[in-house]
Design brief:
This protein has helices at 3-10, 15-45, 51-62, 67-74, 78-90, 112-120, 129-137, 139-155, 160-167, and strands spanning 94-96, 108-110. It has 177 residues and is mainly α. It has a single domain (22-167), classed as Orthogonal Bundle (Arc Repressor Mutant, subunit A). The model has no long low-confidence stretch (mean pLDDT 86).
Length: 177
């Protein structure tokens, strides 16, 4: 191998960091547009409910979890979750339960009012901007994009099982609740 070839292998291409930055910016902008659309849907159905609160209710509707378990499942710190959980509790959408087998555990349980709130939020419709944008790509290109994003996500983590669990919209391990 020539000296130039060895040097080129050691030095990362300047193109890769530039591409990574541009991809990061594009993903951030897409995420912001999606967040804005979700906030609008929530505001129309349930004024005052945040996307985080909605996500918590959806997660807890399947199975009660403690704050710590939610933190692990949602990849958020407990200090981020506490204000949202407190507001949901004040609004009557969830209650802090008691675990008869472990007095230290306080599973969060969605109330009937919380279930009604979830039903009041319309599902994403075909006129959603993101759905329309994916349709413009066409099925084959959309599938390729999905595969590339999945590959990128898997390359970013040491815990592929957690990524797969998050993608499947299920916890990596069940809450004890």
């Amino acid at each position: 191998m020539t000296t130039a070839a060895v040097r080129s292998r050691k030095r990362p291409s300047r193109t890769t960091p530039d591409l990574a930055i541009e991809i990061r910016i594009l993903i951030s902008i897409i995420a912001k547009f999606n967040l804005r659309a979700m906030e609008q849907r929530l505001n129309e159905a349930l004024p005052g409910m945040s996307v985080l609160q909605y996500g918590l209710l959806r997660r807890l509707a399947d199975e009660p979890c403690t704050l710590s378990e939610l933190s692990n499942h949602m990849l958020l710190t407990p200090s981020t979750l506490v204000p949202a959980v407190d507001k949901l509790e004040r609004e009557g959408y969830l209650v802090r339960g008691k675990d008869p087998n472990d007095r230290r555990r306080a599973p969060l349980i969605v109330t009937e009012a919380g279930r009604r709130a979830l039903q009041a939020i319309p599902p994403i419709h075909d006129d959603d901007a993101f759905i329309r944008s994916v349709e413009v790509l066409g099925t084959e290109r959309a599938k390729r994009l999905r595969a590339l994003l999945h590959q990128l996500l898997m390359a970013m983590t040491d815990d592929p099982a957690l990524v797969e669990a998050l993608l499947a919209n299920r916890p990596e391990r069940k809450c004890r609740g």
